[in-house]
Design goal:
Layout: E1 3-9, H1 16-23, E2 29-35, H2 41-47, E3 51-55, H3 61-74, E4 79-82, H4 94-102, E5 107-111, H5 122-139, E6 151-154, H6 155-160, H7 170-180, E7 185-189, H8 196-199, H9 205-220
Parallel strand pairs: 1-2, 1-4, 2-3, 5-7
Antiparallel strand pairs: 4-6, 5-6
Helix pairs in contact: 5-7, 5-9
Length: 222
């Protein structure tokens, strides 16, 4: 099975090299989607010998995942792992995702709730629970960590899932698409590595409200 990692990155020059070095042992190829970064993210990724696809302007997480998924399929990936470029995820846990796929999962979500939100600040916990509730209320799909960026998809799943949103709302959209196409979704427990840097990357309250509005629009147009 040919395993690709898709890593969206926007101004992640301080962490991208370490993330790539830790990810390489667990996948066959890495695609970094440089989402209009104004720093050295792309250059530092290229030095690591990975493929870099660059958006000329910042388009958002959803657009970056869409670009990465399309490229991975074109290059012959059998499965795709997504993880964040800020160092929040432990690539050594990729083995859990691959094992779940080998046992029949189409989509695998890494859940921080299954480890008790260990180390997660309370306000992040509240935001996560609200994200789960919104996803369930709008799309009728329940998972314990709807906003997790650590995921895996089979090629079959990627051929079914249609990403229409450009930004953070893509996390709920993926869950909705998984349910719509009756894909086999499995959650695996993961730990999250929180630093001042990774915590600074979260959504603000107002960005969260914009995300909610876009999800409502996505639901209406479904």
């Amino acid at each position: 099975m040919k395993i690709f990692a898709v890593i969206p990155a926007y101004n992640e020059e301080t962490t991208i090299v370490q993330v790539l070095q830790k990810t390489k042992p667990f996948v066959d190829q890495i695609l970094v989607v440089n989402d209009g970064s104004s720093d050295q993210t792309a250059q530092r990724a290229l030095v690591q010998g990975v493929r870099v696809i660059t958006h000329s302007v910042n388009r958002g997480l959803g657009a970056s995942l869409g670009t990465g998924f399309a490229a991975a399929q074109y290059l012959g990936a059998d499965a795709v792992i997504t993880l964040d470029a800020d160092g929040q995820h432990d690539p050594a846990e990729i083995k859990k995702f691959i094992e779940a796929i080998e046992h029949g999962a189409d989509v695998v979500i890494g859940s921080r709730m299954l480890t008790g939100f260990e180390g997660m600040p309370w306000y992040r916990q509240v935001a996560q629970i609200l994200g789960n509730l919104v996803t369930f209320c709008l799309f009728g799909a329940w998972v314990t960590d709807s906003q997790s960026g650590f995921r895996a998809f089979t090629r079959f799943a990627l051929e079914k899932i249609q990403i229409k949103t450009n930004r953070m709302e893509v996390s709920s959209e993926i869950i909705a698409e998984t349910k719509r196409h009756k894909l086999n979704l499995v959650e695996v427990p993961i730990k999250a590595i929180y630093t001042d840097y990774s915590l600074s990357k979260g959504q603000s309250f107002f960005v969260g409200l914009k995300t909610l509005v876009k999800l409502v629009v996505r639901r209406i147009n479904q």
